[in-house]
Design brief:
Low-confidence stretches: 1-26
Structural class: alpha+beta
Mean pLDDT: 86
CATH architecture of the largest domain: Orthogonal Bundle
Number of helices: 7
Radius of gyration: 17 Å
């Protein structure tokens, strides 16, 4: 496999910016199912049980209103998938940050593609990323500000 397929984000670049470096091959994860009784009835009314059996990610209506303006271009759906994977991982009492491999698993995309998308989202000032491929600290502040700006009228 090419070395680029085994790279990750490490701190230590210019001005403390993250850098990609070589790591081990991707780890394996298993899809987990949730008890549908724990999913709010209003959510079950909107989607079927089989679609929801792995859980769901909140999707703000304000993002829905400006989605096509914020996520455009040939990789728009992949960018959205990575953002939603980040949102899905985020928890109130998070004890561990997500790995690149796990975000890849959640988004259903290869790690090298998720890495490229994270870099692209960073270039668009949608996210800030620090850490390494085993523990990515990702802040969506730029994206949230853009959503607020696009929907302020």
């Amino acid at each position: 496999m090419e070395e680029s397929a085994h790279q990750n984000l490490d701190s230590g670049g210019p001005n403390g910016s993250p850098q990609w470096s070589a790591i081990e091959p991707e780890k394996k994860f298993a899809r987990q199912t949730v008890d549908l009784a724990r999913i709010p009835s209003h959510v079950l009314h909107k989607w079927s049980g089989p679609v929801l059996n792995e859980g769901f990610v909140p999707f703000p209506k304000r993002l829905l209103r400006c989605l096509s303006r914020i996520f455009d271009g040939p990789d728009a759906t992949k960018e959205l998938a990575v953002v939603l994977a980040v949102v899905d991982f985020n928890r109130e009492r998070l004890i561990r940050l997500p790995s690149l491999a796990f975000l890849s698993f959640l988004a259903g995309l290869p790690e090298d593609e998720v890495r490229s998308i994270l870099e692209r989202l960073k270039q668009k000032s949608f996210i800030q990323v620090s850490g390494n491929s085993e523990q990515l600290n990702i802040h969506l502040g730029g994206l949230l500000a853009r959503i607020e700006k696009e929907t302020s009228q």
